[in-house]
Structures are given as C-alpha cells and as structure tokens.
User: What shape does this take?
Amino acid sequence: MESQAFSPEAERSMVEHMNEWYADANLRYARVYGQLMQATAASMVALDRGGMELEVTLPEGTQRIRIPFDHQLNDEGDAQQTLVAMSFKAREMLGQRQ
Assistant: This one.
C-alpha cells in the first residue's frame, strides 16, 4: 500500500500556502465538509493524500477535525485541483458569490 503522506517539504508548502492565501477556503471546508457552521476561523494543520486536518475556532473553543477527500490524491497538482473544486462547491453550498 502506498504511503498517504506527501514529502514533508511538499506538505509544509501546501499547508502554508493555504493558510497564507486561502484562510477563507479553510473556513468553508470546516463549515461545509466538517459540518461546523458555527466556525469562525480555520487553519490547515496537515494534508496528505487521503484528506486534510483543520484546527477550527468555535465559540466554545478550538477543535481539530479531519476532512477526507473523495479520492486518493496522486500528487501536489491533484491536491491543488481537489482543494479548489472543494472550495467552489462549499462556496456554492453556502450561497456565497464566486
């Protein structure tokens, strides 16, 4: 069985990129896929081929959640495409403008 992990450098780069540029997407992931509509913020803390882990800020404190992907990611490009697609779908589900 193939490892779920990306290289440490690739994972760190993707996680930092998501937190620096796409905090709004992280929050959408938490609200829609994590079913935590009361979330006020979310940071990505881990990413592998099977899913992502977010630290979510809620009114009662923080919670760490795992959101699985709908398929096993092949590479970093697949991760980018999957995260973008999930963000657009979450935005649509929340009724937000593109």
